[in-house]
Amino acid sequence: MPKKKRLLWQLYPSYLLITVISVMGVTWYASSSLRQFFLGQTASDLEARARLVEKQIEECLDPPDEKCVDLLCKKIGRRASTRITIILPSGKVIGDSREDPAKMDNHVDRPEFMQALTGPSGNSMRYSRTLEKNMMYVGIPVRANEQTLAVVRTSIPVTAIDVALKEIQIRIAGAGLVIALFAAALSLIVSRRITRPIEELRKGAESFARGDFQCTLPVSESEEIGGLAEAMNEMARQLHERINTIIGQRNEIEGVLCSMIEGVIAVDMDERVLSMNNAAARMFGCNASEAQGRSIQEIVRNTVLREFVTDTLSSEKPVERDVVLSSNGDLFLSGHGTLLQDAQGKQIGALIVLNDVTRLRRLEEIRRDFVANVSHEIKTPITAIKGFVETLREGAVKNPDDAERFLGIIEKHVERLEAIIEDLLSLSRIERGTEREENELVENRVKDVLDTAIQVCEVGAVARKIDIELSCPENLSAKMEPRLLEQAVVNLLDNAVKYSNEESSIRVEASQGEGEIILSVRDEGCGIEKKHLSRLFERFYRVDKARSRQLGGTGLGLAIVKHIAQAHGGHVNVESTPGKGSTFSIYLPGR
Q1: Rounded to the nearest 5 degrees, what angle is found at the Cα of 499, between the Cα atoms of 549 and 527?
Q2: Together in a domain, 472 and 572
Q3: Do 456 and 492 belong together in one domain?
């Protein structure tokens, strides 16, 4: 691409060329006019001199006296700086102030001679072969009785005229040069006055292109350029307002997309990502900015997702599809896809919205497990009760020993059913109170709650020769619902007593952490394998189902502990090493 010239160097040479041509034209015209003027004046002077000579030689021409004419010519020529020549109508030269007429050529073909014979006078300017120089000739006829007796010709060299004209031309050229220089400087000033505002407009336009709309263009006095500057300033103001509006709208949209928990992806017709919000990036385990422009299959390799995107692009109706991602564990997504169109209604891609329904799926699984577990836990004692009732009806009731034994078994199963139902009701009350914010938390000493819980479990611990140790600052307090927190600690202690070895110890501790209070129950039991820890606080989840039922557990104790902690705004945690024991902790908000 050829380098662009500045406007100044496009305008200024034109102005300079026009100035130079004008000055040269004026110089040429002035020189030509002066030359014609001088030549005209010289011709008039020669004609006047010829008239004077005419009066003096008329006597020598009728009849022609060549000797008299020649002597008279030389005599007059000596007194004047003019060459005088007398020519007969035949062209013969009979007198000349400078040369011998006898040696001169016939002048019948001379222009000035021919014009003088047919008119009042004749003149010409030509090279003289006789004198070997440029001469101006003027001839007039000498007439008598309506007859032309001769032609008087006067002439002078034009060298003097040329010298004078040359001096005048030099002066005119010098003056023209001065005028040209002045005009060149003036043209430069005028050009800069034109180009400077345009240059400022260009710089202003570049500032606008860079996004600097605070720049204000100076308004020139010129109506055209000043009007253009005002129009550009107004354009910049409107652009600034519109861009700010667009940026604000874009930021609002980005804010909405970033705050959405749903993943939003826009793809073009080639299934390349146009835009992706942070939620979608987290789902796919990628960076949102790096994903832009890449194929959806490069980001996440999932056949169902690819088919979902392809079906959305080819369908005129919204498409819904469930997608399961397994990159970071199972992630269940509910997808909704619709066409993406521009302002003219032309399809430019597809918009995919992904809802993370993993929690709902897990809750659904928990619900199903809960229903199955409740059914199983209730069905087992009911089946046993039914069986023993039928046995009693068939005659065992008549045998006092068998009847007493069967009724004792039925009583144990009824107690188990009662415990299960009581725990379920307790769990329901805790959840309902948390949802309705009915649990009233009051400031209370932690040690009082722990002492009460230890007293409740102390009988079972003493029976198994288990020592319960307590470590709690006297002044440690927290906002709590004492009855619920006591139940949680009792459940943890009860489990610790059941699963600890005989003649072991259980340590109950309470301490102040960073912004929280930690209650922990540590036992020296059999411990729990790591694979069970994440589900340990689920309802009816058992590590060893047979042993748990044998020890009289309902499978709801730890679930109740978790919900009590959540009702206090806290959470639970468990750490365990198989063969060494377990530590269950309740974290409560505290100073």
Answers
A1: 115
A2: yes
A3: yes
